[in-house]
Amino acid sequence: MNKNVIVFAAHPDDEALGCGGTLACHIDNGDNVFVVFMSDGVTSRNVNGGEGEELSLRNKSAYESCNIIGFRKPEFVNFPDNRMDTIALLDVVQKVEYFINKYKPSIIYTHYQNDLNIDHQITYRAVMTACRPQPNFCVKEIYSFEVSSSTEWSLSSSGSAFNPKKFVDISTTLDRKLNALKAYSAEMRDFPHSRSIDAIKALSIYRGASVGVKFAEAFQIERVIS
Questions:
Q1: Which residue of 40, 107, 160, 222 pairs with 141 in a disulfide if CB–CB is 3.0 to 4.6 A?
Q2: Which residues contact 174 (CB under 8 A, 6 or more apart)?
Q3: pTM
Q4: Domains with residue ranges and CATH for the chain
């Protein structure tokens, strides 16, 4: 039976970084995949204005990336970039609830709770609040992904390092993940930055070797109901 899957990503490019290969696997299996971008991803960079052109480019890249992976057009909430902590959590939760009610997902992917980026943290909190246990709820599985240049930079004082227990073999979809990331060329960096194509491929190799496959993406399990 085909499943509905939603990714709640703080910024355009987080979906490809964190679970692009896994989303491609879902597509290949006939599942319906949707992505919701919570923040615009760029407005914090332009304190003197002029962010319109950069925002347009980021959104265009998001459409191109989604098309490469193969899922439906993205949804944009457009909370302020790197300022989601200035929005009442209830307002963020209600946006998440809206898309859950709209698409009725059985599987959700979102950020790791202790990422360095504040928008990642707020997105995680909003998803887990919106998915508080209740009878006859559509969501049966929730997974958090790692985002290079945020997850590995999380503060050690948080007391909880990213500790994946679910691994998805992306050996057949890695190329789509990397091509989707190339669509975000303005966001990518040169090696040895962790948000470079070479570093992300290396992470896929490492996660794959951890479980005996060529390439993998790794997830923390937040909830599974079977």
A1: 107
A2: 21, 201, 204, 215
A3: 0.95
A4: 4-224 (3.40.50.10320)
DSSP-assigned beta bridge partners for residue 217: 168
Strands of the 166-169 sheet, one edge to the other: 75-79, 32-39, 4-9, 107-111, 141-145, 216-224, 166-169
Q: What is the pLDDT of residues 46-72, one digit of tens each?
A: 654 546 788 888 899 999 999 999 998
Give the Å distances, CA to CA, from 29 to 17, 24, 32, 70, 211: 20, 9, 9, 12, 22
Per-residue pLDDT, averaged over 182-209, amounts to 95
Joined together, the tokens standing for residue 123 give 């997105």
Tokens 């194509």 correspond to what residue? 197
- Report the amino acid identity of residue 156: S
Query: Please, are residues 192 and 202 in contact by the beta-carbon 8 Å criterion?
Result: no
Q: What percentage of residues in the chain have a pLDDT greater than 70?
A: 95
